[in-house]
Amino acid sequence: MKFLTLIQYFERLEATTKRLDMFEILAELFRLSNANEIDKIIYLVQEQLLPSFYTLEMGMSEKLLIRAITDASGKDLTEIQQHFRSSGDLGITTEHFLSGQHGTNLDVHTVYSQLCDLAELAGKGSVEQKVEALTALLHSATPTEAKYISRFVVGRMRLGTGNATILEALSLAKTGERKPKTILERGFNLCSDLGMVGRILFTDGISGIEKISPTVGSPIRMALCERVATPEDVIKKIGRCSVEPKLDGFRCQIHKSKEEVEIFSRNLERTTPMFPELVQATKTAINAESIIFEGEALSYDDLTGELQPFQVTIQRKRKHGIVQAATDIPLKLFAFDLLYVNGEDWTNRAYSDRRKLLSSLITNNPVIELGHADETDDPAEFSRIFQTAIDKGAEGVVAKRLDGPYKAGARDFNWIKLKRSYKGTLADTVDVCLVGYFSGKGTRAEFGIGAVLATVYDPNTDTFKTVSRIGSGFSQEDWGRLRKVLDSHASESMPPRVVSTLTPNVWVHPHTVITVMADEITRSAMHTCGKDENGIGYALRFPRAQGFIRSDKNPEDATTVSEIITMSESQKLIKLA
Questions:
Q1: What is the model's pLDDT at position 422?
Q2: Is the CATH code 3.30.470.30 the one for domain 224-423?
Q3: Per-10-residue mean pLDDT for the chain, 577 residues long?
């Protein structure tokens, strides 16, 4: 496919805010693709070169891009900087200064390969090499192609297409129907690589997708919990179950193949270098040649053995000073699930069987242990276990269906979380995705930000729906830092995947997740979360931020619309009790 053809579809995607239109545009694009390029096209639509766990990043700043535009156009640096300040979009600036350039008839494979080569440049002299490589690529492109290349290298394309929309479009394009989407979803959830899913679909069809299985080194999208109101509801839903403390730390998916170990975070980023003690313990204390298992890592006091709060644990998330941090803030991993071992996929096995085998594979060591669990089908006993977990500092408990499979990437009733909030007022936390901010007043005027527009995720429509304006919980320093982050993802208009009746001063593409607490959930005509036929939705009452940005969570990891409705119903039950 010619790169200009792909760009024409990018322009169509950028021009619409309707998800159905995006779906049709993508399906049309995929029909024009072949098996040798579909993965590259999908990655570019996702605005990445490879999935995040490959850690291949462009490494290009706006400053370096401006240098490349200067070299490619032969124009004055100051003139280009002034135009950028006016346009606010380096893509538009690139297009302006390269106007009249005819290009060299680029194709998708060539552009993708050159971008990958550019990203892989590292070491001494690599900055100059990156600028030279990008200059050459821009010089060989048409002005429109150069606009999108520039946006891509600094992460500013923002086409507004989510994974769910891409999967649905792939299904329609290749099979002519949306029904196989569920098969594609399972394949994607097991490999976390949409490009790979597209390549296999175009090469081997649905039968090839059905053969996708866990692979050591490729993270599996993590299973998620549903919510209910009471212990009675849990037992009614899943019967006798395993009840485990809900710990607040780093969720880790650990992959081992002989002496090679990789660790992936909740949002599937490679975090291996951060946790050397977990790597070493996995090598020596896990009795399996190859394995994929999950656990929660928390910091602890090595003198008393007491677990420490998340505010302490989070200090281990760093790129520098790792060895000293491992000494000062040691981690303990509480393993809780087994997904794969010695060549066999265990995701479809019963949870009780997975836990039993995992227990037998952990040899005695001070770093990794099997997480505590009780089994019960008695609501009264469940309540006692719940309270014991709270007393020991846990957020609550997770109940797991004993015969349930591991549903990768799914939120269902195989796992149910019950947090302390469900035993009283809404003290539960909600993860929200920020999609805009409002100008500050009074003491916040200097920051230009005084409140943020928060949304929750609707997986049924692959959209983000508003649930609150949040103006408290951040320090003055946090407000300044937050604005810088949000400005880096600003949008000229309401992003395509956002559904809102409110208009902030600055729109922001879904990217940044924060955790908030609120007094309760109320019905509101202002917000679109759970909006009914009368135009009444759900909103958080008196929300306040807890901590800062949740860098371990993707936008789609935000609390869902259905969870908000469930939490609202839980309040009613508590008030009636």
A1: 43
A2: yes
A3: 96 87 94 96 95 88 93 92 90 92 91 95 91 94 95 88 91 80 92 96 95 96 88 94 93 96 93 94 96 94 72 85 88 96 96 97 95 95 89 86 95 87 57 92 72 94 93 87 91 90 93 90 91 90 87 89 86 49
Bridge-based pairing state of the strands 544-549 and 490-491: unpaired
Q: Are 547 and 566 in contact (CB under 8 A)?
A: no
Q: How many whole angstroms separate alpha carbon 527 and alpha carbon 539?
A: 6
CA distance 237 to 401: 9
> How far apart are alpha carbons 503 and 521 in whole angstroms?
22
SS3 label, residue 455:
strand
In this structure, which amino acid lies at residue 422? Y
The CATH classification number of 429-576 equals 2.40.50.140
Picking from 499, 500, 556, 491, the residue whose alpha carbon sits closest to that of residue 159 is 491
For the chain, the maximum distance between any two Cα atoms, rounded to a whole number of angstroms, is 76
Q: HSE-up of 440 (CA within 13 Å, CB side)?
A: 17
Domain with CATH 3.30.470.30 in the chain: 224-423
Would you call 497 helix, strand, or coil by DSSP?
Answer: coil
Q: Which residues are catalytically annotated? A: 246
Q: Which among 551, 457, 557 is positioned nearest to 224, based on CA atoms?
A: 557
